[in-house]
Amino acid sequence: MLIKKGAEANLHLEEWQGRKVIMKRRMPKAYRLLQLDSDIRTHRTLHEPMLIHRAKEAGVPTPTIYMVDLAESNIIMQYIEGKQVKQILNTLPLSEKARICRSIGTSIGLLHKHGIIHGDLTTSNMILTSQGKIHFVDFGLSEHSEELEARGVDLHLMKRALQSTHHKSAKQCFEAILAGYTESVGKETAAEVLKKIQEIERRGRYIEER
Amino acid sequence: MYVSKLETPWSPQPLPKNPQKPTYILGIESTADDFSVGITTLNGKILANIISAYMPPTGGIHPREAARHHAEVAGETIHQALKKADTNPNQIQAIAFSQGPGLGPCLRTGATAARALAAYLKIPLIGVNHSVAHIEIAKLITGAADPVTLYVSGGNTIISAYEDGYYRIFGETLDIAIGNCLDVFARQAGLTQSPNNPFGAIIEQLASRGKTLIPLPFTIKGMDLSFSGLLTATVEALQSRKHRLEDICFSLQETAFSMLTEVTERALAHTEKPEVLVTGGVAANKRLQTMLKTIADEHNAHFSAVPKQYALDNGAMIAWTGALAYKHGITTPIERSEVKLKWRLDQVHVPWINRE
């Protein structure tokens, strides 16, 4: 059953070996050249399960990977039952918002501490379970990097996602995320990353012709 | 410092006594290499759109040289626009000008001309955001009402959609703009452009004869993009002398436009808007249009592209956006008319859009 038609992949909820699973299918994109299309789909199908697994090792809740079919660009993984943070965040009282955002920040910090850059941090890619845990999903754009620049961009994306989708409380939410992040990576690193974010924001605005 | 060069052709004559009721907005655009003056009615009828392009024989835009060009042509361009619209200054209700973002010297020249005109005619001034104007003119002409907009030009690469009073930015470039990437590559390849055949069009023609895809970096971060690594790799491919220029142009376009299309599709899936719109100078590229139409169709969204004459920087878009603001009581007092070099799209309140 198709549950989400994304830009990059379709998610199907299926029964597989007696389990409820998510089948993530990276469909060929008609707008791309055949060669480019197959390179991109193969690369992402290969990298995503590896990084999901690494994230789990780092202590961040992620779906368990059951099977990868490289030829078909399919990944079968655990179905995380819960709600997209995107859908619930705006409805929550401020204190609960702060708790969730702090916990998101802690997880982002753990990823970065272990050299994982998520690459697509939005509230659509986080699922809150009934136990109050937040699972990170969709590691399709993730990469391994220890660089400050990559960490800065990662958090900058998170901030931007809050501003576009949760603009009324974006500021408080991002502050709570930074507090959680600082808990994981330490004050010194957090300060460096924060400085980098500011640099990135100044850079992206308007680039004069060279 | 270029103000003295500004000629106002009608200045020696005193204003007529019983002027007709003013109903037009005059818009001045001067953010980068074009100086343009447009005149529209408050309802969006475009009466004039005169563009004077500054195109240096070699190299990129030198902001001060471009500003010098703007100052030299300002008077004549305004004069021509009034003539084309078959109107006189008394029928102008307000002067709109591009207040940012853009190159400082260029913006200041346009702002100075606008202030002078507004003061002389004793009419209000309206500072317009250049990025908002690109979106509004495209909406006016294509009839798009609530699109995900891809705005692609020499200075900007922005994916946005309207929500709650503002155009929200969902994705943008983290470094250089796509148009800048194409232009710098074209110069490296030794190509020469002309007003009727800009670099973008030359690359498109060459790419249409390309066959072999050269692997180039494909860099997307969430909904943001990066073109600087792609530019470096493309220039390296050129300098290696291992590939045909046609194949390099082809690979550059395919890679860059696939990135833009993927990000636009992400914004479309995220916002579930019913329309996709492309605007800005790079919007004229047919290959990019084809790719965007494909994803729009897939999501049952309607696709439209701004026509070429309004794709490049133009005065009509400033006049029209000025008209929208003016109808909602927005004017800019002279003491707040300083240019804003880095004025972001998402900082502009757009009360004229109502979709509650």
What is shown here, in short?
The complex is a heterodimer of chains A (210) and B (356). With 210 residues, chain A is of the alpha+beta class.
How does this model look, in words?
The complex is a heterodimer of chains A (210) and B (356). Chain A has helices at 34-58, 85-88, 94-113, 148-165, 170-185, 187-203; strands at 2-5, 10-16, 19-25, 65-69, 74-78, 83-84, 116-117, 126-128, 134-136, 143-144. Chain A is an alpha+beta fold and 210 residues long. Chain A has two domains: 2-78, Phosphorylase Kinase, domain 1, CATH 3.30.200.20; 83-203, Transferase(Phosphotransferase) domain 1 (Transferase(Phosphotransferase), domain 1, Orthogonal Bundle). A five-stranded antiparallel sheet of chain A has the order 1-2-3-5-4, with helices on one face. In chain A, strands 6-8-9 form a three-stranded antiparallel sheet. In chain A, a hairpin with a 2-residue loop joins strand 2 (10-16) and strand 3. The relative contact order of chain A is 0.13. Chain B is of the alpha/beta class and 356 residues long. Chain B has two domains: 3-134 and 312-347, Nucleotidyltransferase, domain 5; 146-310, Nucleotidyltransferase, domain 5 (2-Layer Sandwich). Chain B has helices at residues 63-84, 104-121, 130-142, 178-188, 199-207, 228-239, 245-271, 286-298, 315-327, and strands at 24-29, 34-41, 46-53, 92-100, 125-129, 147-152, 157-163, 166-172, 220-221, 224-225, 275-279, 302-305. Chain B has a five-stranded mixed sheet, sandwiched between helices. Chain B has a five-stranded mixed sheet with strand order 8-7-6-11-12, with helices on both faces. In chain B, strands 9-10 form a two-stranded antiparallel ribbon. The longest helix of chain B is centred in the last third of the chain and has 27 residues, at 245-271. Chain B is globular, with a radius of gyration of 21 Å. Chains A and B meet through helix 1, helix 4 and helix 6 of A and strand 8, helix 4, strand 9, helix 7 and helix 8 of B.
